[in-house]
Design brief:
Elements lengths: L2 E4 L6 E4 L1 E6 L5 E3 L5 H23 L2 H8 L4 H17 L1 H12 L1 H23 L17 H30 L7 H35 L2 H21 L6 E2 L13 H14 L5 H4 L23 H11 L2 H14 L5 H7 L1 E2 L15 H26 L7 H32 L10 E4 L4 H24 L6 H30 L17 H25 L7
Parallel strand pairs: 6-7
Antiparallel strand pairs: 1-2, 3-4, 3-5
């Protein structure tokens, strides 16, 4: 927030261009005209585009590498992909805590980017290790143990780096906007929309380029390109260092270091339990007048804890029902790089007699849908909704999340119907016992589910991002974004668990598993119907909780 100061010589009042509670990279007060806002977040957004090019260059086609280069079964490969994606999306909880506690976002970005680049370099090396069975179809027995060990070490080193890099870079970019300044505060409301737009450009590009290189040229080259892209991401981030604002609440050199947020919040719950016999009248005098009225049982903790810590705990606890309801969306989100891709690999993907579209490239339609719909949402939908609801963002973040979950239900229904048609086509052409045969059904049938999936992302993913960032205290912003990312992480873990349980349950007594290696005998359609039903329940619950949710600030 800008203030005014008096000129000592003339006595006139002149505006102070310093940004409160913010310093530059040299530890001096940040100057509004030369730092922060879009001029700084532009560097972080470009860095995130390059980072997402690297990450999705690995993630988009990983299931193909598991089944073809490492010779794993479809169910095992899908579980391994989900576990890795889940780890990468869950680690932000740990890194966010580290950044908020003592390391700071900037230093965490530098540290984790080094892990990230080392992992990508090691992954590239693993892809150069030759198979033991040249000229034959790859089987697990043909893969050298060294190749497997190096590959998994590299994969989880990437997850370790990516988990910290993305959560801190995203929060650091949002920190460049001063919430106390009306102009910058309004710009910040569009930041997450345009960040997701920029990210989608990186994802679309890598799905067009890297997936093609991996399947048609070389896996080693296909992994080396993301490694170079991550190096570019770090360079672009450092390029903007002279324009960045560092919050003195933990980022600047003059800022104080915080306790671990998990420790602070845990301390409140322990104190509330210890003081549970105290009456409300014993604590009301210790609470500030603006204390929230929700979760009053935590007010007893004020006897042992600071009132601000009690409010922090209340803010985080109020997010738990929304977080739990959103986990089903995390499970649905895990399907596009796994079963959607394997589904497409069995269908007619030919553009010409010599050119086949890699199945993973179909994920480009998710990115294209996002790129087309975000400007429509930001420039058309929001102004119209704003004129009706009188809300700055048009609709509340929870209404936005609910809409996205509803669209994900329709996407799963369409996916199930298309899979039923694919199975029927395979049966009509006598291909049920031919797992390697191409089902004479155009892969374009999958495009609607991908597009709807992308539109759902615009509502749900951006909404979750904005909600969890905005509804926690400023000191816990990294942790807030980590909670959002953990939805995808836990969703992937749950997806892996569901696949393993269903695989075991449906393959008993000689039955064909829902996830059989021969997808012409499998039943992915049953799995999609199950996810549609679970998403419907999640939608009902999140609408219920949204009605009673009290925002920390007007939305």
């Amino acid at each position: 927030m800008s203030t005014s100061i008096a000129d000592n010589e003339t006595g006139t009042i002149i505006p102070n261009d310093n940004v409160e509670y913010s310093v530059d990279f040299q530890g001096k007060p940040s100057i509004r005209s030369s730092s922060g806002a879009w001029k700084s977040s532009g560097f972080t957004m470009c860095a995130e585009v390059a980072e997402k090019f690297a990450y999705f260059g690995i993630a988009s086609n990983l299931i193909t590498y598991f089944t073809e280069a490492l010779g794993e079964s479809t169910a095992v490969a899908a579980s391994n992909v989900n576990l890795w994606l889940g780890t990468a999306a869950f680690l932000p909880l740990i890194w966010g805590s580290i950044a908020d506690s003592f390391l700071g976002r900037f230093r965490t970005i530098l540290l984790t980017s080094s892990f990230y680049i080392m992992g990508l370099g090691l992954l590239t090396f693993s892809a150069t290790i030759p198979s033991l069975c040249k000229g034959q179809e790859t089987h697990e027995s043909c893969v050298p143990q060294l190749k497997v060990i190096v590959f998994f070490c590299a994969l989880y080193l990437i997850a370790l780096g990516e988990g910290g890099f993305k959560v801190c870079l995203r929060a650091f970019g949002a920190d460049q906007f001063d919430e106390q300044d009306p102009k910058e505060s309004k710009a910040k409301s569009s930041y997450f929309n345009w960040l997701y737009f920029a990210i989608s450009i990186g994802i679309l590009t890598t799905r067009l380029i890297t997936n093609y290189v991996q399947e048609n040229l070389s896996w080693a080259l296909g992994y080396a390109i993301p490694c170079l892209s991550m190096m570019l991401a770090l360079f672009l981030f450092l390029l903007g260092i002279k324009t960045y604002r560092f919050s003195t609440g933990g980022e600047g050199r003059q800022g104080r270091k915080h306790d671990n947020p998990f420790v602070r919040i845990g301390r409140v719950f322990v104190a509330a339990a210890i003081n549970r016999r105290q009456t409300p009248s014993d604590t009301c005098l210790l609470l500030p007048t603006e204390s929230s009225k929700k979760f009053r049982f935590l007010d007893r903790a004020v006897i042992s804890c600071d009132s601000s810590e009690v409010e922090e705990a209340k803010a985080v606890l109020s997010l738990v029902p929304i977080w739990l309801c959103s986990l089903v969306f995390g499970i649905v989100y895990a399907q596009s790089p796994t079963f959607f891709t394997k589904q497409g690999s069995t269908m007619d993907r030919s553009i010409s007699s010599t050119l086949l579209v890699p199945a993973a490239t179909l994920q480009c339609f998710i990115s294209l849908a996002i790129l087309v719909f975000i400007p429509i949402y930001d420039r058309v939908f929001v102004p119209i909704a704003r004129s009706i609801t009188r809300k700055p963002a048009g609709i509340t973040t929870l209404q936005r999340i609910s809409t996205g979950i509803f669209l994900s239900i329709i996407s799963m229904v369409i996916a199930a119907l298309v899979e039923m048609k694919r199975l029927k086509t395979a049966q009509n052409h006598g291909l049920v016992d031919s797992p390697k045969a191409t089902v004479p059904m155009s892969v374009c049938w999958l495009i609607p589910q991908y597009i709807l999936f992308g539109v759902s992302d615009v509502f749900t993913m951006v909404g979750l991002q904005e909600f969890f960032y905005g509804q926690v205290p400023p000191e816990l912003r990294s942790m807030g974004l980590a909670l959002y990312l953990s939805i995808i992480g836990i969703g992937n873990f749950l997806s892996s668990f569901m696949v393993s349980v269903i695989e075991e349950a449906t393959s008993q007594s000689g039955q064909v598993s829902w996830f059989s290696n021969n997808l012409n005998q499998a039943h992915l359609d049953y799995f999609y119907w199950l996810l549609a039903c679970l998403s419907s329940l999640a939608f009902i619950f999140i609408v219920y909780f949204a009605k009673s949710y009290v925002y920390n600030s007007p939305k």
